[in-house]
Amino acid sequence: MAGSDNFTGQNIQDTYQRVLQLSSSGQLADGTGSLVELLDVTASFAVSASHEITFETSSSYAQTASAAENNFNIASNLYFDSTTPQLFVDGDSMVVFQSAFNQIIVPNLRTGENQGIKFGTDSDYTIKHTDNVKMAILEDTTTRHTFGVGGHLSASAGVNIHLGPGSQDGGEFRGQSANITRITSSIISASSHIHTSTLKGSGDTVSLNVLGSISASGNISSSGTGTNTFLGDISSNGNVITSKTGLPGNQYINYSLDGIEINVDDANAIKIDNDSGTVAIGTSNIPSNTRLLVEGDTTINGHLSASGDLKANNLTIVGDITSVGDDVTMADDLSLTSGAARIMFTGANGGQTEGVLYQDSSAGIRYGLLFPGSDVVALANRAEDGVVQIRANDGTAGSSGEHIVATFDDEKVNIGNAIYLASGSGHITASGDISASGTITGSKGHFGSITLGSRLNANQIGSNGNVGNSEYGTLDGIDITQTIQTQFDGIANKTGSYAITGSDVLFGNITTSGTISASGNIYGSSIIGAPIQLVTHAWYSNTTSDQGLDNLINGNSNFGWADRAWNDSVTKSEIAGGSFANSYDIQKGVPVMHNVTDIELIGNLRPSTAPSGSNDGSGDPYTAGDTSNTGDTNPGNQLNYWLYAGDSPEGDGIQNLRFLASGSSNGKAGILKRAHHNTIYITGSTGLTMDKGEMLYVFAQTTQQATGNVRGNYTVTAKIRE
Length: 722
Hints:
Layout: H1 12-15, E1 21-22, E2 28-29, E3 86-89, E4 92-96, E5 104-105, E6 116-119, E7 125-130, E8 134-139, E9 142-147, E10 153-155, E11 209-210, E12 214-216, E13 220-222, E14 229-230, E15 234-236, E16 240-242, E17 244-246, E18 252-256, E19 259-264, E20 267-273, E21 279-281, E22 292-294, E23 311-312, E24 329-330, E25 355-359, E26 365-373, E27 376-379, E28 388-393, E29 402-408, E30 413-415, H2 484-492, E31 531-541, E32 551-553, E33 569-571, H3 572-575, E34 589-591, E35 596-607, E36 639-646, E37 658-664, E38 678-682, E39 695-702, E40 710-720
Parallel strand pairs: 11-14, 12-15, 13-16, 21-22, 23-24
Antiparallel strand pairs: 1-2, 3-4, 4-5, 6-7, 7-8, 8-9, 9-10, 17-18, 18-19, 19-20, 20-21, 25-26, 26-27, 28-29, 29-30, 31-40, 32-33, 34-39, 35-38, 35-40, 36-37, 36-39
């Protein structure tokens, strides 16, 4: 055998040092007698080898043998001289040890059933095979993750999978197929589909970026504030749930529990209300009882049709409006600006239901203008006891110059002024009676028969039994040789004073430009134009809750207007409907005994304290009248009287109240003062009229005071009319 260990041909002196010998102490030594250190073995167990070891020895190194029949136990460390030592089985490397790198296990590493591999200083984590079919990862004794048959992964909490070097920003989970309940990862990619019940990004900055298409059989929702970018299509058999789509800050759609908002240039363009289904265009305000609201001008080049009502505050139509069988309802005015504009009824030739209607006091829809038959136009009022009026103005425009010319009811026609027939225009012919409570006048008159309510003096009847201008007759106390006409002419032509004596002196109309006087009484059923007093009263109220510009003060809740202690009021909105809310409020009025016109009022109001608030910094909008304070010039502080008329009570029925006039006090020199009488006037040729039997109501009104009282008095007058 060649080599340094072959002593053939070598001298003993050169090789004896390397020859082993057994020393006298039973130890192994070299040729010089020195002990061999490598064979100094100490063991607490038997050492076996391919040859018999018949002694025990101690050494700092383990004994070397080609095989061990039983377990090989190492009580301390196992040291290798090589930097990459290996363990071999049947000549194959099984484990490669590396001092600076991970250890390499070449074939499989296997444990027994329900046995595992522990990790960590305290063996905190264990991987073991369980139940012959599962592999479990345990934290201490708690199973955290389980891999089942087919590679399914289940966990007691979320699973975070990170692959790849560096921070988690570079990690990926890749798989040909995965059925995972929950994945948290910065990037998830798949060459095919990702099937999951929920796929989402989380947090304020985490986004969900999808390069291909998203298909979902369930809902697609996003509750975060990050950006989700989809470069492909989104296809879903279920719902796609999101609070906003589009370009935020530019063009986008907002989805919320209130509805849907479509925004253009970051401003609301269309809003659809969730509760009512109302569509609002150009505004985010949703009105009630409206299905479509358009804010601003709207142009429709084609047709606009509606199966229900079409409503608009202002609707400008360039062409025609056609409604087939449905109503057109407008909340405001209908303004026709064309010089050729007309309102036409072309559905029938009369006798149908065409007309102009209004809502009466009982909320019924009644005709005011209708076409009851062919070529017939009727001005009507089909309300209960409906009245038709014809009105005209004097030289003053507006309601203040308006007069009722004629009133028509179911029994009579009331002409407010004289009836004039142009010369040669015809006659007034009646098949029945013509009656007048006043005087019928005319330059000429012809009656087939006259029925007198009082006797006619026989001396006034001519010899032929007729009364005429050319017939003879006498007037008591006048020259009996003259005709009646001559005698009247003599009276009419007299100047200065003229006395008529005798009994039962009868006259027709007497016209004079001067004064008619009598030392005695002048009697007549009515003296037209004579002023009369309708009502006068003085009162006191300390009920501040009745004050305020929405209230009208009048009377006592138990005793009516005549009681001097007024503690009651009505609201303006209450009587705007034409009747009182309480039947006892009828006691607040007085009946009128004549047909009257030119109704006037003079009254005073004296508030004891100032109303709440101030406009001049003095703290007292009504001054006490001293020269150091200028008083109140605030139009919000008012002292007013109001006049209303109504029908006769007739068993506390509907009043049909109507407003006559109101007046305000400017105070002395334009200043309202507390603790002073402030005078209020409704005077002049007012043209205000009332009929005999109607009720007159006088209400006072003041700006509400915090405390204190108000005193008042008034007188209402009028002139008798025919």
